[in-house]
């Protein structure tokens, strides 16, 4: 079912019937965006007793506008709107940090992505990331985990292995025509507009 038909389910309720859950689907555009977001901060959760996973979106309140934008994209899949969360007191700084978040229903249309991006509960880079990541998804990945430094954008990939980062470099090179050079500590990707993407990873 596309987003237009999904809109028939806009009446918010905490629980959906099995038949209602099966009516939801993801468009190709949203799948591409989710692929980029899953390389960033987005995570998919699933309990042992629930076969259907849900998406959890979270940002600091500094990025509230961005989080609201994401909610507008995925609100059809959500039981309620964004909520404010105040974290525990940080003893180092004496401050409590605020975040804003929302999450979706538990839906079968998220199972494919959950199985691709998670192995034994750990987020991974799927082997077919080149098929999943779109240019729009890349933009959202940058919004999620990128930051400007010098004349380019750095992407934080410290949660992934060196093999996974190499796969990301290969994908960006082959699919988006980015010239990539690999160093021991950072991966630097350059293209004709002199935008530099540095894929950082931990060295063990």
From TrEMBL:
On whether Coiled coil is a keyword of this UniProt record, the answer is no
Give UniProt keywords alphabetically: Endonuclease, Hydrolase, Mitochondrion, Nuclease
What Pfam family does this protein match (any one)? LAGLIDADG_2
Which residue numbers delimit the Homing endonuclease LAGLIDADG domain?
32-185
* GO MF term (any one): endonuclease activity
**In its keyword annotation, does this UniProt entry include Mitochondrion?**
yes
Q: Which domain of life is it from?
A: Eukaryota
* Cross-referenced InterPro entries: Homing_endonucl (IPR027434), LAGLIDADG_dom (IPR004860)
Function of the molecule: Mitochondrial DNA endonuclease involved in intron homing.
Q: What is this protein called?
A: LAGLIDADG homing endonuclease
Species assigned in the record: Thanatephorus cucumeris (strain AG1-IB / isolate 7/3/14)
Q: What is the lineage of its organism?
A: Eukaryota, Fungi, Dikarya, Basidiomycota, Agaricomycotina
